[in-house]
Amino acid sequence: MLRLTLAASRWHRGLPVMTVLGSARRVCSRDTEPMPDAWTHVGRLWTNGEPFLAVDAALRDAWQGLSNDEYDQIIGLRPEDTSIPVGAGRAVLVGGDGEVRDDSWIEVFAAAGGLVAIVQAAGLDYPDVLARALDYPDVDDQAADTLKVSSGELAIFSAVFDGTGPYSVPLLPAQPGPVPPVHGPPSPEACQGLRLPATCRAYQLKVRRYTALDQSECFARWLLIPVEPCD
Fold first, then answer.
1. pLDDT at 227 over 60
2. Measured in Å, how far apart are the chain's first and last C-alpha atoms?
3. pLDDT of residue 124
4. Are the C-beta atoms of 204 and 118 separated by less than 8 Å?
5. Which residue, 93, 95, 6, is CA-closest to 45?
């Protein structure tokens, strides 16, 4: 079986790498690079079923999901709609697949080259399901909208809230560490967002909705794949 383990001797940009152990290198679609052999778990976010916005951090003050009821725009979107205007740019929608779980942790991973994976998973062996979700080919994933990030920082937070101000949630910096051994209940810090360094200026979103691995294990996955040169 695949396992996520901390490879203490391997580092990428100063971050410890969580390695997916397996015999085969993962293969992406015909027009993307192969999936990486190593991932870093950098944070987790709690959803009560709502999606998250992934957006250039410089634009997050333009989102007023709660104070100006902009979240209502998302409620009216079709399943194939994967982005929404935010200020002078756009945010892509990630996380929150009710077929996987209603209330759920969303695990966030980063890899060399700027690739980001956002995974929602269910199963008794939680680390193994996450590993298999990361390992799953993306050839049949929905090729979705492009996310522009010119500020060098990516913000991910619940679309229910504002991006800044009294109706926003704190955004924690990426914190590399071990993969959670179990899904677990929400923690007191569950109502928060995440800040990630963005070394690339544009990412294509690829979406894989509810996918069954067997009778008791399933996942959904959102990939942010760099499409412009990275620093």
1. yes
2. 35
3. 94
4. no
5. 95
Q: How far apart are CA 231 and CA 227, in angstroms?
A: 13
Q: Which two tokens stand for residue 26?
A: 């993962």
DSSP 8-state code for residue 162: B
Sheet containing 83-86, strands listed edge to edge, beginning at the edge strand earlier in sequence? 83-86, 89-94, 52-56, 153-158, 193-197, 171-173
pTM recorded for the entire structure: 0.84
* Tokens 């399933």, located at residue: 218
Residue with tokens 């209603």: 102
> DSSP for 21-53?
--SS-----TTSPPPPSEEEEEEEEEESS--EE
Contact 14, 20 (CB under 8 A): no
Domain ranges of the chain: 4-48+93-148+173-226
Q: Which residue from 46, 13, 4, 31 is spatially nearest to 156, judged by alpha carbons?
A: 46
